Amino acid sequence: MFSARKLSGVCRAIRFHPFRSHSVSRTSPNLAFVPACLPPDPVEVEQLQHFVSNSKRLFVMTGAGISTESGIPDYRSEGVGLYARTDRRPVQHAEFVRSASARQRYWARNFVGWPQFSSHQPNTAHLVLRDWEKLGKLHWLVTQNVDALHTKAGSQRLTELHGCTHRVFCLACGDQILRSELQKYFEALNPTWKAEALEVAPDGDVFLTDEQVRSFKVPACRKCGGILKPDVTFFGDTVNREIVDFVHQRLAESDSMLVAGSSMQVYSGYRFALAARDKQLPIAILNIGPTRLDHFASLKLNSRCGELLPLIVVHDTTS
Ligand SMILES: [Zn+2]
Predict the structure, then answer these.
(1) Which domains can be identified in the chain, with CATH numbers?
(2) Residue 77 annotated as part of some ligand binding site
(3) Is residue 305 marked as binding?
(4) pTM summary value
(5) Which residues surround ligand 1, an ion (CB under 5 A)?
(6) Each residue's pLDDT tens digit, 199-224
(7) Beta strands 163-170; 176-178: pairing state
(8) What is the dihedral of CA 272, 275, 279, 284, to 10 degrees?
(9) What is the pLDDT of residue 4?
């Protein structure tokens, strides 16, 4: 079913205007969805500095915790995550594929949430990782997020492990379109349909009543009439094997691993930490709250990504 999907380079077809500034002061964080934490301890800053300085080919994995400072809630953070505050759960893959009404509900909510969700901007942490890539420090970046914020920041050595909400493809023929383009089809098909976005989830979902959803019209693939699906790995689906192999290769070329803003509860990302452990790579974790790899990491720091990462000094190794 997914054979027509392209594996790499697809996201580059989306033209964002990357943030050019090296300055970290231009993005003031939105902390509503960031769990409470203390400012970085100077000793911890020094430890992370040592870890990063010792790495020549750093493999970085990010999760929802890096995007909370851009105003996107995560699912699992204590008190402020979506699971803690609401009883909403993301759509399951099988349900989406099987049920027309599930798709109608998904797209109606996604349509309402899109203007706000797609307007989120990268924060300091995204910009720092983009700069580390330019300076030759970061070998590969893997994100579990589907918000395109690393792409918006200008990162290129990047794999979006769970896809990206900014792309949509046809389950039958594999045709790809931009999510922004689909918004226009939705508007054309639903000229009088109106609903308000109250709160937008990490995947762009919002809450709507059944009545609101029932009258929403969903477009089919323009080429074959097939079912359109965001290029996102839904819960209950698995990451494409070729993507997994590709990331394992990038990890094999790396000399250490940094996890930023993820509790690593989801196996699709966790498996790379296990692989790093098996290769005896040093692992550092920067996450507010416990993670699944705390017991085998060399370094664990409970700080905000956007507060700690800019304190780390990285020199240009490309010349
Ligand atoms: Zn199609």
Answers:
(1) 40-311 (3.40.50.1220)
(2) yes
(3) yes
(4) 0.86
(5) 170, 172-173, 175, 221, 223-224, 226
(6) 666 666 777 777 888 889 999 999 99
(7) antiparallel
(8) 40
(9) 37
